[in-house]
Amino acid sequence: MAVIGRWIGAVRGALGFLTRLPIGYRDGDWGAFRATPAAFPLVGLFAGALAAIPLLGTERLAAPTVALGYLLSVYAVTGIHHLDGIADLGDALVVHGDVERRRDVLKDTTTGVGALLAVTITVAALALGGLGLAELPVLAAIGVAVGAEVGTKFGMAAMACVGHAAYDGMGKQFTDAATAGSLVVPTVVVLSAATLVWPHPGVLALCGAVAGIGLPWYWANRYLGGINGDIFGAANEIGRVAGVHLGVIAWTLS
């Protein structure tokens, strides 16, 4: 019972952190979530399915309407707080200076041109991906959207398990609570789910999302000395966009 309770708490904590769903916190949920990386893709599956509801209209409604519905649904379910990571990353990308200077920019609450451009490109890219989804059959569109969400959350779990934090903060709370061995369970869950639907384009969307997360992860390791909370947020957004576009491309070329 204690194990079941810990898993329930971990999922509840993950829902509270990764979505805007009205899930009440209980003592210990945050710690259980940080120590249970498998909660990332599990919540990704649930959130992705909810966000994909507007895609049920792909064969009935105009593509721009479906795309707008998908875009609004994604942020209604997952919130916009992860876009703050994109904004801070955008400012850090354009700043001149050393590692410490980039870290200072990430902590700065001022919104610069880099932040505005990065958020604009990210939201526009997701909207364009939504247009691509609107041209797919219903099941394919939903599969890509869900696959992208699961993949980007699995990538975040990988960052928590095998990444190292640049300094104390949100990122370090995840990396200190998880270990490389903690990645086994989420990997098994994701691979099992992917095997069941192969060769559905949602599988390639999942892979694309994981690959997309590698971009900010690599940059952070090279130019920040490790990951932090902003990189987690930015990776979530970039992974989703990469997954959606790869899934659409895969279906188009099949």
From TrEMBL:
Topology in the lipid bilayer: Multi-pass membrane protein
GO molecular function, one term: cobalamin 5'-phosphate synthase activity
Pfam families per record: CobS
Keywords: Cell membrane, Cobalamin biosynthesis, Magnesium, Membrane, Transferase, Transmembrane, Transmembrane helix
Transmembrane annotation, as ranges: 38-56, 111-133, 139-162, 174-197, 203-220
Required cofactor names: Mg(2+)
Highest rank taxon of the organism: Archaea
Location relative to the cell: Cell membrane
A Gene Ontology biological process term: cobalamin biosynthetic process
Known pathway: Cofactor biosynthesis; adenosylcobalamin biosynthesis; adenosylcobalamin from cob(II)yrinate a,c-diamide: step 7/7
InterPro entries membership: CobS (IPR003805)
Main location: membrane
Transmembrane in keyword set: yes
Keyword flag Calcium: no
GO cellular component, one term: plasma membrane
Similarity comment text for this entry: Belongs to the CobS family.
PANTHER family: ADENOSYLCOBINAMIDE-GDP RIBAZOLETRANSFERASE (PTHR34148)
Function: Joins adenosylcobinamide-GDP and alpha-ribazole to generate adenosylcobalamin (Ado-cobalamin). Also synthesizes adenosylcobalamin 5'-phosphate from adenosylcobinamide-GDP and alpha-ribazole 5'-phosphate.
Official protein name in the record: Adenosylcobinamide-GDP ribazoletransferase
